């Protein structure tokens, strides 16, 4: 049975909270990413790390270096941040991923 995006998001947020409660603030993003990847995989979901996100322009795939931190079930994009405050560059990154098509 396939979960809706809302159901999947709810479950993954729960797993992310478990990781956060285990370590609290202070680790590098990569550490949180690896722990969350492990938890999501252990929960039985298909998850990919550092998924390339090419820019498609006039039917040509251009590698601009975009990488999704975690892609769950080919539909939920997770961008891990370990910062004091989110700023405009983080929003821009999220909007970029939202506007680009995920290539399988």
- Describe the main β-sheet briefly: 3 strands, antiparallel
How many domains, in number, for the residues? 1
The helix fraction, in percent, is 40-55%
Number of helices: 3
Average pLDDT, to the nearest integer?
Answer: 87
Spatial gap, N to C terminus: 21 Å
Order of strands, main sheet, comes to 1-4-5
What is the approximate shape? Answer: globular
The H/E string reads: HHEEEEEH
Structural class, by secondary structure, is alpha+beta
Radius of gyration: 14 Å
Number of strands: 5
Keywords summarizing the entry:
alpha+beta, 43% helix
Structural description of this entry:
The protein is built from 3 helices and 5 strands. It has one domain (5-99). It is globular, with a radius of gyration of 14 Å. The two termini are 21 Å apart. It has a 3-stranded antiparallel sheet. A two-stranded antiparallel ribbon has the order 2-3. A hairpin with a 3-residue loop joins β4 and β5 (76-78). Helices cover 43% and strands 20% of the residues. The model has no long low-confidence stretch (mean pLDDT 87). The chain is α+β, with helices and mostly antiparallel strands.
Provide the fold topology.
Blueprint: H1 5-23, H2 29-42, E1 47-52, E2 55-57, E3 60-62, E4 67-72, E5 76-78, H3 88-99
Antiparallel strand pairs: 1-4, 2-3, 4-5
In short:
This protein is α+β, with helices and mostly antiparallel strands and 104 residues long. It has helices spanning 5-23, 29-42, 88-99, and strands at 47-52, 55-57, 60-62, 67-72, 76-78.
